[in-house]
Write the structure tokens for this entry.
Amino acid sequence: MAAFLLWNTGRKNRDGLVQNLVREHKIDFVLLVEYYPSTIGSTLSTLLINDGLVRRNTSERFGVFSRPAYGMNSVAVTSLGDRVEIWNWNPVPNIAARFALVHGLDRMNNNDGTRRVFFRRIADAVRAQETNSHRRSMIVGDFNAHPLESAVLSSDGLHAIGVQQVKTATHRLVRWGDEEEDFFYNPMWRKYGHVTSREAGMATHYWQNNQAGELFWHMLDQVVIRPEESGSFPEDQLTIVSSVGSVTLLAPDGTPDVTVGSDHLPVVFHWNVEGV
């Protein structure tokens, strides 16, 4: 079973914290968003060698580190720029999986329709890899969107929903359509508001703009899987991390402390692709 760490480090050098998270949670995959090592003087590649991880060749936006024994190759998705990378992964011989690492479009510069089209294209790119192969697929990253937003939830977006089956099926018929459409299962629905904190609704990112209606806590960092993979994805091991050893990532008011970590909290999860 592989352990994953997802974290938007916000262009900050948090190499020591990342290394400690790797050791504390016995991480096999490190997936960093807004990494940009050239701008923050990162030494993480050197640090993680001691923990048995190597950096994979990615755009500067991302940092992908994994066990060197894993067979991995990236799939070109040039139409989505540097905001999406798809990786084929062979954890052991004759077993294959894939994941897309995503940095979603921000709301300030992209309207809801544009963001929904962006996620639809991600889903299409993953589906294109599944056509003549397996459906062991995962999409993970800073989505810059809530699980409940149409960009993530709707069938013309990512189509990641909060249930594993619809009447025992992993496809569903959408009104005015002739064919059933596949979907992803989004376990992040179950985490929202269920993290130990004095603030109700704790998620991965805190932001408010003095609007009449505010969520305050936003579940922007997500992992979604094909429903068939639910049995290989232990949800009791899906964790929003608020401390690294004795170091808290939260400020005294309970919000992410950007002076220590990032404005996003890390997420740790496991995927048992090998079936052992």
